[in-house]
């Protein structure tokens, strides 16, 4: 049967949707209410054999395209498509289906389409229209739920309901069902994970297998290895963004059409393989999963991971997804119609949050993404959600939109629920005095729910705990944490702070007591036992750890899609070579293979090149031709490919990003893990989980201060009072020289007096034989004592 015979247009059903949208707009309480209702019908809907398609298409009105020039395009491959193959050429049959339009909405319906599921790939689709020159143009579906070749290609007709059939975590959700939607509260702590560098496989499926293996080991009571301990002791797992990101700026695309006519199409298909830290998004496709992260090419992998976490032995783990709506990369202009955007910003494009259609579609994307089975949502860059107030001639924060995000009701396994929300919001950033003036509580104080969280001041980007006097300089922020930090995410190691740490000038006043080399200093600064003890025992809030930091793996700004500014980006990242790569690491087989192949055979070769590149980028104002010319005149000549050109510079930039992406993989750090450190961190996390009250703000009887006189070191002391007479006393040496021989339990702290104290936790650099009494504390040492009065 040909595709034309198989596909039956159902124009009557499409017209019903168009008429319904008209009635909805007429009778909606507000324009936004009406658009929210219509947004539920956009994208693909499946009812038995009938598949419906809905698009918001204001661009068709902009170009005055008549109905007779607009069609739904359906493409069906002649042979089954294997999404695990890197590259192949595929023959498609093509049909054009008439549509029904109502104002700026376009609908279509068909029967006979091949519907994609886990086991097989379905037909592909896009809206297509013919311009006045007779040339065909496509409108891709921003609400598509399966995009095997990215959002700049036709999407797959996918049966979302099939992903949820037989979910093994159905009982987890059903137990939460009630008369009103269940509201998830905060977890005790969070493990933050970048999927591509979390496992050797670099996919969601590979990460799922990691947790499945852990679950089996825990279930059977097997001994825990250091790399097991990295993932355990957490109540929640937060993934860096898993939505589609930018593609190669200069091509080639993952869907390249070679030839075709009205009935046939030949396409060169490439499995998406970009590398990205996750935040260079294009908004389109936010409701589904980045195909780069899918081993099988099927979005079911995200459901599988949620199931594994929710059925984890001893205690379910929550899944938190990271939503990025504060900006779009400029590539989004090619994926979406211009009505989505409100103008350029430092990241690319602002979104037009006040457009009721954009507002509704963004919220619908969020609803569909979280319906994969997430328990929580982290909102990136909430301070960037702004709109232009023409009456006051200023940009205003769209806090109403943030509230709408929090209000969305999800449904999984028949249970309605509202996820826990945490916002990253540093307003008035990017105002110059933001580090001083930001309260980090703007969203907390503005939302209706009392369990809304924000990233706290020690969790935001510009924190460098390896520079001398850091902790005393932040003491005023710490005092704030004690008073109002219960609803803050705490901890100094996350994807943003670790990245910023690699960009610090090594000539600054670095705390050399943290290690013998820059790599050791950076690793220990962001996986410091004393800092972790402070975070997990002394500070309120919800602690969060970044897997790359606790594994002491490298991390940075990873993005290999740039063409125009790729060399500039690498010049800014070049300083991380000084912090994260030593001679031994560079020379190891398998590391930096692309750069070595280009002639940078040693670390010194690359380091010399990186000394020149940033300086030339600055003095030439990023004139690539001039940069290449000047590099060719360096004496003695630079190592590398021989003669530098613009093309070669771009190849070097791409090689650096690809090599760094491989180098940052946590799998490479496993053999170097310190069992004492991983065991301590696990015991510390379990202590926090067993003492959930530590999340609360300090009370009147609680104490926090630093030992005085300072005498060349920073030593914090904390005494907290819990329920039923429980006391927890913490002392941590944060930086500086060693103390004299003193007894931590004899300090003049109200409430510390008396006997009965037990040394419950000690950092790995303190021997297990220490119980109490005099001790000399050095940098990164700490103790926790407990007693019940």
TrEMBL record:
<dbReference type="InterPro" id="IPR029457">
    <property type="entry name" value="GHL5"/>
</dbReference>
<dbReference type="InterPro" id="IPR017853">
    <property type="entry name" value="GH"/>
</dbReference>
<dbReference type="Pfam" id="PF14872">
    <property type="entry name" value="GHL5"/>
</dbReference>
<protein>
    <submittedName>
        <fullName>Uncharacterized protein</fullName>
    </submittedName>
</protein>
């Amino acid at each position: 049967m040909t595709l034309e015979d198989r596909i039956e247009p159902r124009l009557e059903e499409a017209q019903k949707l168009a008429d319904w949208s008209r009635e909805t707009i007429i009778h909606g309480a507000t324009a936004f209410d009406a658009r929210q209702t219509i947004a539920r019908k956009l994208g693909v809907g499946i009812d038995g054999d009938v598949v419906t398609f809905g698009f918001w298409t204001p661009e068709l009105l902009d170009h005055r395209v008549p109905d007779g020039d607009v069609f739904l395009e359906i493409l069906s491959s002649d042979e089954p498509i294997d999404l695990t193959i890197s590259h192949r050429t595929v023959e498609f049959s093509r049909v054009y289906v008439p549509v029904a339009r109502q104002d700026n909405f376009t609908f279509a319906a068909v029967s006979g389409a091949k519907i994609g599921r886990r086991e097989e790939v379905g037909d592909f689709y896009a809206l297509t229209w013919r311009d006045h020159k007779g040339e065909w143009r496509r409108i891709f579906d921003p609400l598509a739920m399966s995009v095997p070749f990215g959002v700049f290609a036709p999407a797959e007709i996918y049966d979302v309901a099939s992903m949820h059939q037989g979910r093994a975590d159905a009982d987890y959700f059903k137990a939460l069902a009630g008369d009103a939607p269940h509201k998830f509260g905060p977890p005790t702590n969070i493990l933050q994970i970048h999927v591509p560098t979390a496992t050797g496989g670099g996919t969601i499926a590979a990460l799922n297998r990691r947790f499945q293996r852990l679950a089996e080991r825990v279930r059977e009571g097997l001994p825990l290895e250091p790399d097991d301990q990295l993932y355990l002791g957490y109540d929640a797992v937060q993934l860096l963004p898993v939505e589609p990101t930018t593609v190669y700026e200069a091509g080639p695309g993952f869907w390249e059409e070679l030839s075709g006519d009205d009935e046939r199409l030949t396409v060169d298909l490439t499995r998406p393989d970009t590398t990205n830290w996750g935040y260079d998004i294009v908004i389109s496709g936010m409701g589904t999963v980045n195909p780069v992260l899918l081993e099988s090419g099927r979005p079911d992998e995200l459901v599988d991971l949620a199931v594994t976490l929710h059925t984890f032995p001893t205690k379910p783990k929550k899944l938190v997804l990271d939503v990025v709506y504060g900006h779009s990369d400029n590539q989004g202009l090619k994926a979406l119609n211009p009505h989505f955007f409100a103008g350029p910003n430092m990241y690319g494009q602002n979104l037009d949050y006040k457009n009721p259609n954009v507002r509704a579609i963004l919220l619908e994307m969020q609803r569909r993404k979280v319906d994969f089975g997430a328990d929580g949502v982290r909102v990136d860059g909430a301070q960037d959600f702004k709109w232009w107030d023409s009456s006051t001639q200023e940009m205003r924060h769209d806090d109403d939109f943030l509230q709408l995000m929090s209000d969305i009701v999800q449904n999984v396994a028949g249970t309605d629920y509202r996820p826990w929300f945490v916002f990253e919001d540093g307003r008035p950033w990017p105002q110059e005095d933001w580090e001083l003036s930001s309260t980090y509580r703007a969203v907390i104080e503005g939302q209706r729910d009392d369990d809304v969280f924000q990233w706290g001041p020690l969790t935001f980007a510009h924190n460098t705990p390896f520079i001398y006097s850091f902790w005393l300089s932040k003491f005023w922020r710490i005092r704030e944490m004690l008073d109002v930090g219960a609803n803050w995410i705490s901890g100094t190691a996350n994807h943003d702070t670790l990245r910023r740490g690699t960009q610090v000038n090594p000539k600054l006043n670095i705390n050399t007591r943290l290690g013998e080399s820059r790599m050791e200093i950076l690793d220990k600064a962001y996986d410091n036992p004393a800092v972790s003890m402070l975070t997990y025992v002394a500070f309120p809030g919800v602690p969060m750890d970044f897997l790359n930091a606790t594994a002491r793996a490298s991390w940075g700004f990873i993005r290999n899609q740039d063409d125009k500014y790729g060399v500039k980006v690498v010049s800014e990242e070049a300083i991380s070579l000084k912090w994260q790569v030593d001679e031994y690491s560079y020379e190891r087989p398998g590391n930096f293979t692309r750069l070595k192949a280009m002639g940078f055979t040693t670390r010194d070769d690359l380091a010399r090149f990186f000394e020149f590149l940033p300086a030339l980028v600055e003095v030439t104002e990023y004139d690539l031709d001039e940069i290449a010319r000047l590099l060719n005149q360096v004496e003695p000549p630079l190592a590398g490919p021989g003669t530098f050109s613009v093309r070669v510079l771009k190849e070097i930039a791409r090689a650096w990003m690809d090599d760094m992406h491989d180098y940052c993989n946590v799998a490479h750090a496993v053999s170097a893990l310190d069992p004492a450190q991983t065991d301590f961190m696990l015991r510390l996390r379990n202590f926090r989980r067993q003492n959930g009250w530590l999340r609360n703000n300090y009370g009147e009887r609680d104490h926090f201060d630093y030992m005085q006189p300072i005498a060349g070191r920073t030593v914090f002391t904390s005494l907290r009072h819990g329920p039923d007479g429980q006391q927890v006393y913490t002392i941590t040496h944060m930086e500086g020289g060693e103390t004299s021989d003193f007894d931590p339990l004899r300090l003049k702290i109200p409430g510390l007096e008396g006997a009965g104290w037990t040394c419950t936790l000690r950092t790995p650099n303190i021997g297990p034989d220490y119980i109490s009494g005099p001790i000399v504390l050095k940098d990164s040492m700490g103790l926790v004592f407990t007693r019940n009065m």
